């Protein structure tokens, strides 16, 4: 997906109150299947959301059914988990503020913390020169 060109990443987010925020990364790549689709991300620019993704750089993509999928099982998602996450865009859709299910929602920790599940999040890449 990202082996032939250089890419940047834009992560757009929205909460249930209509507030929008973003995080931009000037360098984004995904490694080959043989390396577990390893994430590489750097060059953070803050659009109000804070940096919840750089922590996950150099991690392999993890799902609940792989041997090291304990974070995916615990937080009900699939992602480039470390121990375990600051970002969980594939988490459970919990409709905003919640306190019963810490960190299992659609989380971006440095913007809304672990007890708020976002209304929307999108990750968009584009080639850079």
UniProtKB/TrEMBL annotation:
It comes from the Eukaryota. InterPro entries: Fibrinogen-like_C (IPR036056), Fibrinogen_a/b/g_C_1 (IPR014716), Fibrinogen_a/b/g_C_dom (IPR002181), Fibrinogen_C-term_domain (IPR050373). PROSITE patterns: FIBRINOGEN_C_2 (PS51406). Residues 1-129 form the Fibrinogen C-terminal domain. One of its GO terms (cellular component) is extracellular space. GO terms for biological process: elastic fiber assembly. PANTHER family: FIBRINOGEN/TENASCIN/ANGIOPOEITIN, MICROFIBRIL-ASSOCIATED GLYCOPROTEIN 4. This is Microfibril associated protein 4.
